[in-house]
From TrEMBL:
Residues 1-26 form the signal peptide. SUPFAM superfamilies: Calcium-dependent phosphotriesterase. Residues 34-77 are annotated as: Disordered. It comes from the Bacteria. Residues 109-286 form the Glucose/Sorbosone dehydrogenase domain. This is Glucose dehydrogenase. Keywords: Signal.
């Protein structure tokens, strides 16, 4: 791993708390606490994929933004020559969770939506089994979210959002241990079961739930469907929640990703509506009436990553269009312009595409990881599905277009 990745590492999970066991509820109005914007520098260029794993493997190394690079050869079987690919030949990697480390060998947990398998993906190594969760994948459910415990280094706990025979729920587990329920009874339907998990980097877990195929449930304060929940690791309402409720926001339908800035000053959630895709900036206690950005062409917004770097940018993966939407973020935390597109196979040096992107997670403020779901309606290559490293650009040029 190159020196720039050693110096970049900052344990993002050190201040975030993850889910525990039980049923809790969360409200939209923060009691004395709001997700206030944190100043970030003005955007200059969007994130792009580089070669964090360039020191491992035998493939060609990728250039920094603005530099030329040789094209990456196509994969041969499960061998992928792209140094940013850290795991291959998996199945529908809908969920990922970046692991803490020294930055020299990036690694992450990768969850397969349909099988419930969780694997350890490490740059330069073959993926290994970590756990298997019993899930039901019908109706877009299954294993759709992963997040580490905020004290993962000490407790080694992982949290997952899954669909079971009776409900959608949050469970926790450690390697070699059976999963334990944390938050149960989230409505399940014939569709609308996909949900996801992240941390707010202020000591709580964020759980975005689908509407279970019933749009009215998203507005129902008595239902856990279609909500953004903020809970502690025992499944109770997190400290500072408005009125001690579990839900900090209502009105979601098919959320694909939830992410926060490293300091917790910005919280984002992506959602797919009937007429458009949307990105919301969450302000506890305020409605989701006005999205921060919308996509009328409905690219299938999925996971997101808030890069805290000189560019001030938010990246959103898409599971239908199969690209990365890079949105500039102003110093006050607002989306300040239209997205540029990368990982579409047309832009960048070299032009890259990984196809359909799903879950995303930060490893450190300068490095994220994403999973692909090309075996779920896409056009898989021989090494799909994959786990891919994503870094922000630090200079002009790069993998983008207007």
């Amino acid at each position: 791993m190159r020196t720039r990745y050693r110096s970049a590492l900052l344990a993002i999970l050190a201040c975030g708390v993850l889910l525990p066991a039980g049923c809790a509820r969360f409200d939209d109005t923060a009691a004395g606490q709001t997700f206030s914007p944190a100043p970030v520098p003005s955007p200059e260029s969007p994130p792009e994929v580089q070669g964090p794993g360039a020191d491992s493997g035998s493939g060609p190394k990728q250039a920094r933004p603005g530099q030329s690079a040789a094209p990456v050869p196509p994969p041969q079987g499960c061998k992928d020559f792209d140094p940013s690919v850290i795991a291959t030949c998996l199945d529908t990697v809908a969920a990922v969770a970046g692991l803490p480390g020294d930055g020299s060998t990036p690694s992450a947990l990768a969850g397969e939506r349909k099988s419930g398998r969780v694997l350890l993906a490490t740059s330069g190594k073959d993926a290994t089994d970590f756990a298997t969760l019993e899930v039901q994948a019908a109706g877009d459910g299954g294993l759709t979210g992963l997040a580490l415990s905020p004290s993962y280094v000490e407790d080694q706990l992982v949290f997952a959002y899954i669909t079971t025979a009776t409900d959608n729920r949050v469970v926790r587990f450690a390697k070699g241990q059976s999963p334990k329920p944390v938050l149960t009874g989230i409505p399940k339907g014939a569709s609308g079961n996909r949900g996801t998990i992240g941390t707010d980097n202020r000591g709580a877990l964020l759980v975005a739930t689908g509407d279970a195929g019933n749009p009215a449930a998203a507005a129902d304060p008595n239902s856990l469907a279609g909500k953004l929940l903020r809970i502690d690791t025992s499944g109770k309402a997190a400290a500072g929640n408005p009125n001690g409720s579990l839900a900090v926001a209502a009105g979601l339908h098919a959320p694909g990703g939830v992410c926060a800035s490293a300091d917790g000053g910005r919280v984002w959630v992506t959602d797919r509506l009937a007429d458009k895709d949307a990105l919301y900036r969450i302000q506890a206690g305020q409605p989701l009436a006005t999205p921060a950005w919308t996509w009328p062409d409905k690219p299938g917004v999925a996971g997101c990553a808030d890069f805290v770097d000189a560019n001030g940018s938010l990246s959103v993966g898409t599971a239908l269009a199969g690209n990365l939407q890079n949105l500039p973020v102003s110093p006050d935390g607002a989306i300040s312009g239209k997205p540029t597109i990368s990982l579409d196979g047309k832009t960048g040096k070299p032009p890259l595409t990984y196809g359909r992107l799903a879950g995303m997670s930060m490893i450190n403020p300068q490095l994220a990881v994403a999973g692909t779901v090309n075996k779920d309606g896409g056009t898989p290559v021989s090494s799909d599905d994959r786990v891919v490293l994503i870094t922000p650009a630090t200079s002009g040029g790069g993998n983008s277009k207007d």
